[in-house]
Design a protein that fits this description.
Number of helices: 19
Order of helices and strands: HEEHHEHEHHHHEHEHHEHHHHHHHHEE
Mean pLDDT: 81
Shape: globular
Strand content: 5-15%
CATH topology of the largest domain: Rossmann fold
Radius of gyration: 26 Å
Oligomer: single chain
Number of domains: 4
Strand order of the largest sheet: 4-5-6-3-7
Length: 456
């Protein structure tokens, strides 16, 4: 049967109806499903067109990100204050890179900063990249600029007429190059005389902040680099009343853009390296003690815990293994706090696992942590994996057996495997969030402070 005539037959029961509308409806007729979809862009409505290209799941207060990591009270105070001072200083560089290895607390700091400046009404926008958020848009770099523009309309209503006028003039703007989108919908509106007057008169000395977390979680490294260059060019043309905080692992391609793109050189970008945060151990100790206090006050089995639990030795052991990676401390305390098991038994299982004991744990306390490391290891190119596993095996063997000589430097492995100069660094580049690769011996930055995690 002709499909066109079949469609007419299947909707014949509306033939005499008038003045009605169907929205987002599935019509079932004779086993067929006729769709009346609304998930197409509305080219006459600027807000709907922006929303169609947004990643609302990546916002600081997104429901999909419910209960995101944030800094516990009295932790990371020095880092947070340094960021606040950078934002509020008129002479500060407009971009800051918050970098650090996997699990060192970048997202918690960004969440805390975004919430803090949101409360002060000085947050322009936020975007939390994530491959694990349950939404592909949260890791889609093409959603970044539309999402920033949507929030710009909300945080600075004075920009709305200029943004909306540009979208009405060019309704396919979000199919244009990312640089064109940023220039037309972000830079141009903020450069209008009325907006500059708003910055000067109404805000006084206040500045506006954009928080961009998990940059390395953006799906495509080429898109990451393109967006970094676009942001640098955009902010370089604006008033110093705009600040951008970017957080990521120190991936090779990200570092390369920061070090070589001329605009970043002119901007004299500020950096904070969380792997060099010497106050992390004290913050982790405070975090663990606070979580233990909560267990002793609220856990269903709290009355069965020994009054001296846990020992200072056990707490100090956890701190030594976790520092400076907060993700291990958080993972451990979440595991110990489980309401359906004894906290003391779970702490024993954790200590056994971290000390290399062969005693079986109750279950895998590091399941979430392993997911992070598993993904990072998948970034090693297939043709290099055999070499990389051998190199990592050498590092692990040296640490595990405390051999009386340093871990070989990249040059040693290049000679051993008969590789060309620089190839070992190239192979290990995807693991820069786990390894420090100086010219001298390779250093491990694992979240277990030398304790190996096995990733299948």
């Amino acid at each position: 049967m002709n499909l066109r005539s079949r469609a007419f037959e299947s909707t014949a029961f509306f033939s005499r109806a008038s003045n009605f509308q169907l929205h987002g409806t599935n019509i079932f007729s004779g086993g067929d499903v006729l769709n009346n979809q609304e998930n197409v862009p509305n080219y006459t409505n600027p807000v709907r067109l922006i929303l169609f290209h947004c990643a609302l799941d990546a916002l600081v207060d997104s429901n999909r990100r419910y209960d995101p990591p944030r800094c516990e009270p009295q932790t990371r105070d020095e880092i947070i204050q340094e960021i606040i001072d950078w934002v509020n200083n008129d002479t500060s560089p407009p971009i800051m890179w918050l970098r650090g290895s996997a699990g060192c607390g970048k997202s918690a700091i960004c969440q805390t900063i975004a919430e803090l400046f949101g409360q002060k009404k000085t947050l322009i926008a936020s975007f939390f990249f994530s491959r694990a958020a349950g939404s592909s848009s949260s890791s889609n770099g093409d959603c970044l600029i539309p999402t920033i523009i949507f929030q710009l309309r909300q945080s600075l209503p004075e920009t709305r007429p200029f943004i909306d006028a540009e979208i009405r003039k060019n309704p396919i703007i979000f199919t244009r190059a990312r640089g064109v989108q940023m220039a037309s919908l972000f830079v141009h509106p903020l450069q209008q005389r009325s907006i500059l007057r708003f910055f000067k008169n109404l805000l006084g000395q206040k500045v506006r902040l954009i928080v961009l977390d998990g940059w390395d979680e953006c799906q495509d490294p080429e898109v990451q680099c393109d967006l970094l260059r676009i942001l640098a060019d955009a902010v370089s043309t604006l008033s110093r009343k705009v600040r951008i905080l970017i957080a990521s692992r120190p991936e090779a391609h990200i570092t390369h853009v920061f070090e070589t793109y001329p605009t970043f050189q002119r901007l004299n970008m500020r950096q904070i390296n969380l792997d060099e945060d010497h106050g992390a151990s004290q913050d982790i100790l405070h975090f663990i003690r606070d979580k233990i206090r909560q267990i002793r006050e609220t856990h269903p089995l709290r009355n069965y815990l020994n009054p001296s639990w846990p020992s200072d030795a056990a707490v100090n052991f956890l701190v030594s293994k976790a520092s400076p990676q907060f993700i291990l401390a958080s993972t451990v305390m979440t595991y110990i706090s489980d309401l359906e098991d004894r906290p003391d038994a779970r702490l024993d299982a954790i200590i056994n696992a971290l000390s290399g004991s062969q005693e079986p744990a109750i279950d895998n306390p590091f399941e979430n942590l392993d997911k992070v490391y598993r993904f990072i290891f998948t970034q090693v190119k297939a043709r290099y994996r055999q070499y990389v596993w051998c190199i990592l095996g050498g590092i692990h063997g040296n640490i595990g057996h405390k051999l009386p000589f340093p871990i070989p430097c990249p040059n040693f492995f290049e000679i051993f495997f008969k590789l060309r100069p620089g190839e070992v660094n190239l192979m290990l580049n995807p693991l820069l969030s786990l390894l420090s690769i100086p010219k001298d011996p390779v250093l491990l930055q694992s979240a277990t402070n030398g304790q190996s995690r096995v990733v299948d």
